[in-house]
Amino acid sequence: MKRNAKRQRLLLLALPGLLAIGCAGIGGGQACTEISGESGVAVGWEPADFADSVTGGSDTDSGSLVARLCVQEVCESRTVANSDDPAPLTDVVLDEDIGEVTVPVRFTVTSRDDGKRVLFDERTDVELRRFQPNGEGCTPTLFRATLTADLERGQLRPG
What we know:
By secondary structure, the protein is an alpha+beta fold. It is about 20% helix and about 40% strand.
């Protein structure tokens, strides 16, 4: 009985050391997670903000929206019903090694059914920031920017 209690205490005392070795890796090298990612620009927006502008437009209008994001010469579009996703991200992937540069960005939201009603159309220049999702000194090194489409202010803002 005493021997089991002594063994359990010894294991409990050794546990933090074993965990530290396991987290640091054998040989004491830097431990890196394996989170991947891509360089690029993302814009967050809330379809509900545009709901009043879309509903009641026409008898054939389903309330769907098309978000289009262009960064440099690369564009991506996404169609969302105004109630599908409360805060979707629209993003454009860029070359992984693009670096910390300033890129032109244009973000538009239009009514899906006729495509003629432009609800939001803003341009800005944004600086890509270095980002290492697995920690400093770990790969990959990405270059990203995230913006939010602010319908109330009619602008793209950081974040």
